[in-house]
Amino acid sequence: MTDTPAPTGLPPATVPARPRAVRTDALRPALLFLSVFALGLGGLQLAVGAVAPVPFWVPAAFTAVFFIWTAAGVIAWWQRPLSGTGGLLLVGAVSMFLGGAGNLGLPVLIELSAVFATMVLSVTVHLLHAFPSGRLRGTLSVVTVAVGYGVTLVLQAPLYLLPPDQPLLLDLALWVQSVVGLGVMVATAVFLIGRLRSADPKNLRVLLPLYLYGILAVLAIPMSANVLRIFDVDTAVVGLIQLAVLAGIPIAFLLSVLLGGFSQTAEADALSAWLGIAGSTRAAVGEALARSLGDDSLRVAYWADDRQAFVDEHGADVPEGEHVPPRIWHEVRVESRLVGAISYDGRMITDPEIVRRAGRVFAIALDRERLTAALVASNEALVLSRLRIVETADRERSRIARDLHDGLQVQLVLLALEAQQIANSDDASPATADAVTALRHRIDDAAADLRRLVHAVLPSALVERGLTAAAEDLVDRLDIPATLISDVDDRALAPATAQSAYLIVAEALTNAVKHSGARTVRVELTRTGGLLQVRVADDGRGGARVEDGTGLKGLVDRVDALGGSFELQSPEGVGTELRVELPCGS
């Protein structure tokens, strides 16, 4: 890489292993403690650096970069508890501190700084290869990172172990370290370019800030020393330039965080709560899983039993590319029943156990969706059944009315005519004529009662002229002043709607006259969109309740069966107002 002194770090063995589960209530206080400890450590470095045998800007620069790496590490671990990236950034921060500690003039720190002088470079390589999941994936990454640590640990050893009076050996060791280090950096740049070219477009906002800057950094760090040395640039200036480049690595990472593509990984219970929100759509389920697992390219597939194939949230077939590496296909089952699958980028999520846990939550969401669909279907069937009952009852009511009107009523009229003929015949005695005439009157009274019954069952005005005319007929026959306002086109009303509205008006007017003691009443029939609105208001004594009689109860059931709404307002001493909305169509 380069012999320019740079911040140092810890051996790879000390990199924290990625946890299987993290309790944020314990992790976050620990991260806050680390932040406070890092502030104290940086402050101590500045205090000692003020009296160190080097210009003060040197320890100040190392401390500033140490703070940047620490802040990025804490934010990364806070945002992604299950990712090892935060730990790598903190290891880089420690490397930075140890690299700068050699400038304080203390013998022990000088020796530590010599050992870990270039450690932060291998941590940078490790971070770039492991981002964003925190784990290395693929032989190229593993080998490159391993060689990188070898360059900064093994090939660094001759530089502080060989005696100063062996310049040829020191130059040879430095040349070998520089050549191998340059190879590691070039391999890393090639790897990052390949990752960007093959990345899913949805993940580019996460990868671009760090990868583009990472390509620049891994090439600029080793080449800057060699190129600038040709122009006799001072070693301190070269080191400062390299420090500035290294400081940009965590800043580029923070850009990925701020762009929103690196959101906090949710635990299973949080994800369950997210997917458990009422009204979550299939698109929302996929979005919740993608954001929770940190892979914007994650896609959810649903198993369609009728087609024996996987479909997306819109019902379209899932493309075959979802099964092709580097994408990983994880099938989700409820017991032994296949219900769906999760397709994700294996480079963004390297721990399949996380996906399996999310898949179990996904299965719960799918099972809830299935049960909800079954409940909705059952409810729809119940509503249709109740509607059929109402329509059947109306048809039966119409049949009875027609039979009474066309059958019994006609017979009574014929009997009355026959009785009148007998009374008017020359053979009839006065006593017989009087008796037959009285019989005809009784027949006429029975026919009138029958007409009223037929009108109550199904008024002819409703059948022949529509709802408005039938309501007008009701209003005209009231014993109290009444007003009717209607803008309804009777041709647009379904028979069940028209008959229900008529029964509602008739019941409300009857209650206003018989029970409310109203002096005036007002009836309004209006249509808004696909709804018929019925309003009947009186100025009676109020106090009416649905529970008080069977008439309103039956109307409530009828309105509910038609999918309408029923509202009764009847405060004591103020009057009664009935508002009903019914769908115009059946």
What's the layout of helices and strands?
Layout: H1 24-49, H2 57-79, H3 85-101, H4 107-115, H5 119-130, H6 139-153, H7 157-161, H8 167-198, H9 204-230, H10 235-258, H11 268-275, H12 282-293, E1 299-304, E2 309-311, E3 327-334, E4 337-345, H13 352-424, H14 430-457, H15 460-464, H16 467-476, E5 482-486, H17 495-514, E6 521-528, E7 531-538, H18 550-561, E8 565-569, E9 576-583
Parallel strand pairs: 5-6
Antiparallel strand pairs: 1-2, 1-4, 3-4, 6-7, 7-9, 8-9
- Give the number of helices: 18
Overall shape: rod-shaped
Spatial arrangement of strands, main beta sheet: 5-6-7-9-8
- State mean pLDDT (0 to 100 scale): 78
Whole-Å distance between the termini? 80 Å
> Regarding quaternary structure, how should these chains be classified?
single chain
Helix content: 55-70%
Query: Based on DSSP secondary structure assignment, what is the total number of beta strands?
Result: 9
- Poorly predicted runs are 1-23, 261-270
Secondary-structure element string: HHHHHHHHHHHHEEEEHHHHEHEEHEE
Question: From the alpha-carbon coordinates, what is the Rg to the nearest angstrom?
Answer: 44 Å
